[in-house]
Design brief:
The strands form three sheets. The protein has a ten-stranded mixed sheet, sandwiched between helices. Strands 3-2-8-9 form a four-stranded mixed sheet. A two-stranded parallel sheet has the order 5-7. About 30% of the residues lie in helices and about 20% in strands. It has helices spanning about 40-50, 70-75, 115-120, 130, 150-155, 185-190, 195-210, 250-260, 265-280, 295-300; strands at about 5-10, 15-20, 35-40, 55-60, 65, 85, 90, 100-105, 110-115, 135-140, 160-165, 180-185, 210-215, 220-225, 230-235, 305. Strand 13 and strand 14 form a beta hairpin. By secondary structure, the protein is α/β, with parallel strands linked by helices. The longest helix has 15 residues, at about 265-280.
Length: about 300
């Protein structure tokens, strides 16, 4: 069994990226430009980037089906030497989680998810064996995955730094165990009706002192640090025509933050690294097809502006 510095636990699936020449319109036929199958799912997207950056990563969570998509995904994940997939389980009689993602030229996405509810009901149980000698663990979408609670408790009891996402209610029992929470302003609005995420982020931090990072599409990333101080990390300027697919933008930012924390960087630097990574990802079709190298990201990190207000 490989040694590991970090475990990523959650969605393991495959993305079917379907490129179309214009936004989907029910009055207009849509001709497909390209149709491809790529690595997908939060846990896959995050773990592949971390492995690309030469961290020893172990992935677990969703069980794959003993089907063509499951075997294709195993083949794709096997190409990353630093990624330990020995705890990715394949089971006969079930179907692999998959998203069909329609991508028009303007960078929008139309996502259809298949088999996710089935996989969510029966994830691979997190064990001390899977945790190994990890110092950090990344969980996905904790707001919607109550069955992950035992896994979070085990990771906390084992002394790991716990990084999670989508904690979008203040009564979530997960909060007591979190060190870093990564939220999306869009999800907070669409799922919980929270139009202004900043007061919620402050309240979330005050519950147990977790770092709270809130992304907001093309706008500045809001951060509440462990002491309660706030800052904003501003995205790099990019021409609209270069944004071809926002699939994986949030996952890549979280991967960048996790990388920086494992490396022991200050929080500001870790978030800036994540912002640059996300900038690369949205310029290519698919969640992680761009695969930015560490030196590419570091070459731009000083251009990322940090301020003490949203407009500074």
């Amino acid at each position: 069994m490989k040694n590991n510095q970090i475990v990523v636990y959650g969605e393991i699936g495959i993305d079917n990226i379907i490129e179309v020449p214009h936004p989907v319109d029910n009055e207009k036929d849509t001709m497909v430009i390209n149709d491809d199958y790529l690595i997908g799912g939060y846990a896959c997207n995050v773990s592949v980037l971390l492995a690309l950056w030469q961290l020893s990563v172990r992935i677990s969570g969703y069980i794959l089906g003993d089907d063509v998509y499951g075997h294709l995904l195993i083949e794709m994940l096997s190409k990353y030497p630093m990624l330990d997939i020995s705890h990715v389980k394949v089971k006969n009689g079930i179907k692999t989680a998959m998203c069909r993602i329609i991508v028009p030229p303007n960078g929008d996405r139309y996502i259809m998810a298949f088999n996710y509810f089935d996989r969510l009901k029966d994830p691979t149980p997190l064990t001390k064996e899977i945790l190994g000698n990890a110092t950090h663990i990344v969980f996905d979408s904790l707001a919607r995955k109550e069955m992950f609670f035992p896994a979070v408790k085990l990771a906390h009891g084992s002394g790991l730094c716990i990084i999670g996402s989508d904690v979008n209610t203040l009564d979530n029992q997960i909060i007591s165990y979190m060190n870093v929470i990564c939220n999306s302003a869009g999800l907070l609005k669409n799922s919980n009706g929270i139009n202004n995420p900043l007061p919620f982020s402050r309240q979330l931090h005050h519950k147990k002192g977790a770092i709270v990072i809130t992304t907001n599409g093309p706008h500045a990333v809001h951060v509440v640090d462990s002491s309660g101080d706030e800052f904003w990390v501003h995205p790099l300027s990019i021409d609209d025509e270069l944004v071809v697919d926002t699939t994986g933008a949030g996952d890549s930012l979280k991967a960048g933050v996790a990388y920086g924390l494992v490396k022991g960087w200050p929080l500001e630097k870790a978030v800036r690294y994540g912002v640059v990574v996300s900038n690369f990802i949205i310029q290519s079709i698919g969640a992680i097809t761009r695969e930015p190298k560490v030196d590419e990201v570091m070459a731009l990190i000083e251009q990322v502006r940090v301020s003490r207000d949203a407009h500074g």
